[in-house]
Amino acid sequence: MAKHKLPENVPAQLDDLDFSILSHLQQDGRVSFTVIAEKLNVSIGTVRTRFNRLIEDGTISIIGRVDPDKVGFRSYAHIAVYIRPATFKEQVAKQIARLPEVSFLAMTSGAYDLEVNVMCRDNDHLVQFVNQLSEIEGVYQTNTTIYFKVYKYAQPDLSLLKA
To answer: Which of 43, 73, 83, 161 has CA 20 to 30 A from 121's CA?
Structure first.
């Protein structure tokens, strides 16, 4: 197995076997412990124990990933949020994080304070969402960019952590 160089914020208890198990689960979240164990040449019990620890420590969660377009989300957007005063950033971020349309939220450096990615039913829904953002105390300005077509929607590639 290849060695992984762990960033400082990754718990030290993750090792090559953990990363290999995670990689298999990213490729197919329904793959059996038996198949993973055979491919990694370890016991099923080892895979089960590692899997349970990864669940318990919050490293992974098992979900059904939905293709947004196939279920009716037709309007995706990136919204840059400018906050004044700057001391409101955390408060505003917590309020935005609770909104169900939000699929990604991050504090940024540079021209704007928060980056928000949203999935809405249609453009009318998106307009309602942007208006809702504007009503949050501390939101000074927003700048919305609509994604016409999403070409890739993926999880991080764990092989990028290899030394």
So the answer is: 83
- Distance between CA atoms of 133 and 135, rounded to whole angstroms? 5
Domain parsing of the chain, residue ranges: 16-56, 74-147
**E-assigned strand segments in 16-138:** 75-83, 102-107, 114-120
pLDDT digits (tens, 9 = 90+) for 2-57: 455 545 555 557 899 999 999 999 999 899 999 999 999 999 999 999 999 999 99
pLDDT beyond 80 at 62 = yes
> Sheet harboring 139-147: ordered strands across?
102-107, 114-120, 75-83, 139-147
Topology of 16-56 in CATH? Arc Repressor Mutant, subunit A (1.10.10)
- CATH number, domain 74-147: 3.30.70.920
Instruction: Give residue 8's pLDDT.
Output: 55
